[in-house]
């Protein structure tokens, strides 16, 4: 038996061991994420913008009605937590899908323009048509999908879509940003500063109703499309020719993936605004934790944790100035961003 | 003349168009600039005749409505010239020094860094003087420039154009969210900077733009001094080193120049993207790949673009106007995509 044959025989075994180790790392990371998420959520229930008496909180949670505390808890803190966690999960999943599909950690929806598409459509709806309810979601989704379609169409002429798609998205993102800025100058100062607040990403408008919209929207995409997309993604990553040879309808699979990724990102954007860097960071964090490729479901969990933790900090560190949570994710995200850049650069992927 | 110089000159002359065509291109740019200047003074929500312009320039009569309009347009016209020249040359310098066809002061995040610094200083000090704001803008842009180099210097293959572009875009998103926060906390700063933040020439006064001139001239000289080094870098970094160029020194001087140009332009007119991207590429079509020609020609072409964009912004939606920053992005985005789809096949992304 030659050396070559022996090494090909050993390959699957070694591979299996690595996969098992990685799966256990993913499980450990997921466990820690859930713990941090729950601990922060619990802490936030007691220590929000102002401290609530522990006994009263427990009474409310036990089902008794306590005036004041009950209202703060049921109408402000809990909906915030639910909306924040759901939005973070959607953004994290969306970012990880894009990053995996394009094979580039920098290619998250907030960098390649899809996020700006959703934002621009929602801002236009807000300022031009005065929309301020669940219809914003429809606008944001439509805006995100429109941008995704344009980018896709622009970049589809080449053989390899990855880097062209990213560049096209970059350019369209810049145009849309200019459009958003222009719309903001056309508005009255108060609307403009509302829109600006939303643009940074804020949980302050969270209600149970919005949580329900978010939950239904994300739930539908998550349950109906995500499992299919995840299994098809594995094939797509082998290369489109190989995927087609394995019997995958590549065009349809890609379309479904783009739709799911955009929807998962645009639905939260309509409710909370584009929470800076959540979509961008969730994926690379999972890659670092599991020491492998970006793990999509874990990225959803990571996104939720990021937003809930950022919300806790926003409420406790800067309580007086009432900062929106997107500022925290933006400011604390920036150093991580540089880390991602350097990491992408030193491993040689990223373009 | 040394062997180095003759090699370089031969390489530059072999590739580009002849001297007569280059001089013709420069003459064309001068003519375009004159036409754009005139258009900027004549056209707007209220268009005036040529006689009003001449009268306003020669002997200003404050009672004549047409002349008052011209007078009010003088400042923004001057601003477009100063800012356009700065951004055009900054783009040429960045593209040459980093050997990166996608380099632009907006795309690499320099403008965002300047904006953040300006907004921070304005929010902390209330009304800050222009020199202070310019200094802040310089520091902000310098910091981002250093970050860009830091990111670019890590890794085996260095920074590919797309990596730098994406990294810059991501940095700009992060910096922008911090800028937005500060604007949100301070409502007065928000009102003051709302227009500026998009890139607008309508707010500045003549004094503002004239104050920027010496700084921009200094930055321009620094960038222009690196033209030969840029030519050498275009042939490959190893070749440049072998030819005896001190690349570290050229990059440092050039970067200081670029940061001076971009920071000052942002301080007086707000962040305006894509000018630094479009101008060097447009100019390259006219004068070829020699940076000793690209850089001065960019100084002429930048103002043309900004004057036309500003004038068009006044004409699209009268009586309201579209800020020059928005116009440049609307124009620059599609051009960026066209470049990417057609001309960029030769460029390794």
From TrEMBL, chain A:
SUPFAM superfamilies named in the record: ABC transporter involved in vitamin B12 uptake, BtuC
UniProt KW keywords: Cell membrane, Membrane, Transmembrane, Transmembrane helix, Transport
Keyword Cell membrane among record annotations: yes
Bilayer topology annotation: Multi-pass membrane protein
InterPro entries with a match to the protein in the record: ABC_BtuC-like (IPR037294), ABC_transptr_permease_BtuC (IPR000522)
Keyword Transport in annotation: yes
Subcellular location(s) of the protein: Cell membrane
Domain of life assignment: Bacteria
Spans traversing the lipid bilayer: 29-47, 81-99, 111-130, 136-154, 166-184, 211-230, 256-282, 294-314, 321-342
Pfam families on file: FecCD (PF01032)
Signal peptide start and end residues: none
Entry's family note: Belongs to the binding-protein-dependent transport system permease family. FecCD subfamily.
Annotated protein name in UniProt: Iron complex transport system permease protein
Native source organism of the sequence: Glutamicibacter protophormiae (Brevibacterium protophormiae)
Lineage: Bacteria, Bacillati, Actinomycetota, Actinomycetes, Micrococcales
UniProtKB/TrEMBL annotation, chain B:
SUPFAM superfamilies noted in UniProt: ABC transporter involved in vitamin B12 uptake, BtuC
Keywords of the record: Cell membrane, Membrane, Transmembrane, Transmembrane helix, Transport
Major subcellular location class: membrane
One matching Pfam family: FecCD
Domain of life: Bacteria
Membrane-traversing stretches: 74-94, 106-126, 132-152, 164-185, 209-231, 252-279, 291-309, 321-340
Membrane topology: Multi-pass membrane protein
Subcellular location(s) of the protein: Cell membrane
Family: Belongs to the binding-protein-dependent transport system permease family. FecCD subfamily.
UniProt name for this protein: Iron complex transport system permease protein
Species classification: Bacteria, Bacillati, Actinomycetota, Actinomycetes, Micrococcales
């Amino acid at each position: 038996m030659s050396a070559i044959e022996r090494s090909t025989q050993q390959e699957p075994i070694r591979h299996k061991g690595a996969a098992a180790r990685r799966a256990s790392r993913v499980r450990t990371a997921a466990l820690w994420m859930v713990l941090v998420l729950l601990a922060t959520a619990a802490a936030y229930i007691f220590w929000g913008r102002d401290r609530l008496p522990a006994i009263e909180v427990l009474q409310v949670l036990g089902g008794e009605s306590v005036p004041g505390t009950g209202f703060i808890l049921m109408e402000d803190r809990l909906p915030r937590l639910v909306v924040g966690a759901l939005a973070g999960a959607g953004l994290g999943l969306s970012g990880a899908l894009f990053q995996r599909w394009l094979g580039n950690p920098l290619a998250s929806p907030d960098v390649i323009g899809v996020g700006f598409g959703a934002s621009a459509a929602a801002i236009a709806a807000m300022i031009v048509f005065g929309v301020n309810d669940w219809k914003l979601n429809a606008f944001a989704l439509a805006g995100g999908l429109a941008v995704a379609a344009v980018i896709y169409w622009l970049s589809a002429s080449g053989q390899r879509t990855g880097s062209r798609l990213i560049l096209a998205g970059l350019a369209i993102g810049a145009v849309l940003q200019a459009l958003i800025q222009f719309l903001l100058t056309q508005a009255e100062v108060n609307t403009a500063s509302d829109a600006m607040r939303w643009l940074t990403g804020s949980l302050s408008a969270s209600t149970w109703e919005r949580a329900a919209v978010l939950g239904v929207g994300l739930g539908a995409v998550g349950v109906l499309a995500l499992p299919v997309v995840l299994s098809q993604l594995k094939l797509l990553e082998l290369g489109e020719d190989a995927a087609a040879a394995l019997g995958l309808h590549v065009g349809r699979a890609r379309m479904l993936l783009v739709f799911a990724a955009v929807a998962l990102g645009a639905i939260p954007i309509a409710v909370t605004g584009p929470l800076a860097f959540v979509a961008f960071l969730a994926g690379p964090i999972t890659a670092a934790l599991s020491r492998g490729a970006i793990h999509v479901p874990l990225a959803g969990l990571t996104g939720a944790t990021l937003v809930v933790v950022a919300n806790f900090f926003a409420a406790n560190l800067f309580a007086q100035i009432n900062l929106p949570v997107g500022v925290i994710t933006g400011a604390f995200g920036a150093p991580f961003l540089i880390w991602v850049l350097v990491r992408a650069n030193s491993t040689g992927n990223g373009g | 003349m040394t062997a180095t110089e003759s090699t370089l000159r031969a390489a530059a002359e072999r590739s580009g168009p002849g001297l007569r065509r280059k001089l013709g291109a420069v003459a064309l740019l001068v003519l375009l600039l004159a036409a754009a200047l005139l258009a900027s003074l004549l056209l707007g929500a209220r268009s005036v005749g040529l006689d009003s312009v001449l009268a306003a320039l020669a002997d200003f009569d404050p009672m004549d409505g047409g002349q008052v309009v011209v007078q009010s347009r003088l400042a923004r016209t001057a601003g477009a010239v100063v800012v356009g020249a700065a951004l055009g040359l900054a783009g040429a310098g960045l593209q040459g020094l980093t050997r990166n066809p996608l380099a632009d002061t907006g795309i690499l995040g320099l403008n965002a860094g300047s904006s953040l610094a300006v907004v921070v200083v304005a929010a902390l000090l209330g009304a800050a003087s222009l020199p202070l704001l310019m200094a802040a803008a310089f520091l902000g842009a310098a910091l981002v420039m250093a970050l860009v180099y830091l990111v670019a210097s890590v890794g085996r293959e260095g920074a590919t154009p797309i990596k730098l572009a994406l990294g810059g875009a991501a940095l700009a998103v992060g910096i922008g969210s911090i800028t937005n926060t500060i604007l949100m906390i301070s409502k007065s700063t928000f009102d003051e900077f709302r227009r500026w933040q998009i890139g607008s020439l309508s707010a500045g006064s003549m004094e503002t733009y004239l104050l920027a001139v010496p700084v921009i001239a200094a930055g321009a000289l620094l960038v222009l001094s690196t033209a030969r080094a840029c030519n050498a870098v275009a042939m490959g970094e190893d070749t440049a080193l072998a030819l005896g160029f001190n690349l570290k020194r050229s990059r440092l001087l050039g970067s200081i120049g670029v940061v001076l140009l971009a920071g000052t332009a942002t301080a007086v007119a707000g962040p305006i993207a894509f000018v630094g991207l479009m101008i060097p590429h447009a100019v390259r079509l006219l004068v070829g790949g020699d940076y000793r020609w690209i850089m001065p020609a960019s100084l002429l072409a930048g103002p043309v673009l900004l004057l036309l964009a500003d004038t068009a912004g006044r004409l699209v939606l009268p009586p309201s106007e579209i800020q020059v920053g928005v116009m440049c992005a609307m124009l620059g985005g599609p051009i960026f995509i066209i470049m990417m789809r057609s001309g960029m096949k030769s460029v390794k992304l």
